[in-house]
Amino acid sequence: MAKSIFISILEKDEAKGKGLFQTVTRYGLGVNGHFWSENLEKMEWAGPIGEMEKPEVGVWLIKGGKASYENPDIRFGLGLLAAAVQARRGHGFPILCICDDGELDPATLPTMLRGAEIVDEAKLGAKLAAKANMPIKKVDAEYRFDLYPL
């Protein structure tokens, strides 16, 4: 079973998506993803849960500009999705973030994403290949928390 990456692109930009998908496939990884939707009322943040539950998905990669990471609706949705993914895949499931236009401090991310690794897109391919093919670390959390969007 080939490992794959799930990508969330925070702004709808076909060129960003295409370039990122090409980078990932050059390293022999499968790729799937979506453009982020801020529609909290329809709980569109929950759409990717089923895809990220699959055992072949080894990494969740989030890409966006600093303004998107600071947008309250996007932050809320990302936090909810991260909680759902961590409940299903474990707190050691690798989450990587790329910021297109500046530095991103993990301490400023939503609580459930504070363990995410901030990466430079120039060094992304090798890091993704390594993370996706490593076993998911067992991280004991002080709590159990899961979401069931209805």
Please characterize this protein's 3D structure:
By secondary structure, the chain is α/β, with parallel strands linked by helices. Helix content is 33%, strand content 18%. The protein contains five helices and five strands; from the N terminus they run βαβαβααββα. It has helices spanning 14-26, 49-52, 66-70, 72-89, 124-133, and strands spanning 4-9, 30-35, 57-64, 95-99, 117-118. The protein has a five-stranded parallel beta sheet with strand order 2-1-3-4-5. Helix 1 (14-26) links the parallel strand 1 and strand 2. The protein is globular and about 35 Å long. The N and C termini lie far apart (32 Å).
Chain-wise SSE layout:
Blueprint: E1 4-9, H1 14-26, E2 30-35, H2 49-52, E3 57-64, H3 66-70, H4 72-89, E4 95-99, E5 117-118, H5 124-133
Parallel strand pairs: 1-2, 1-3, 3-4, 4-5
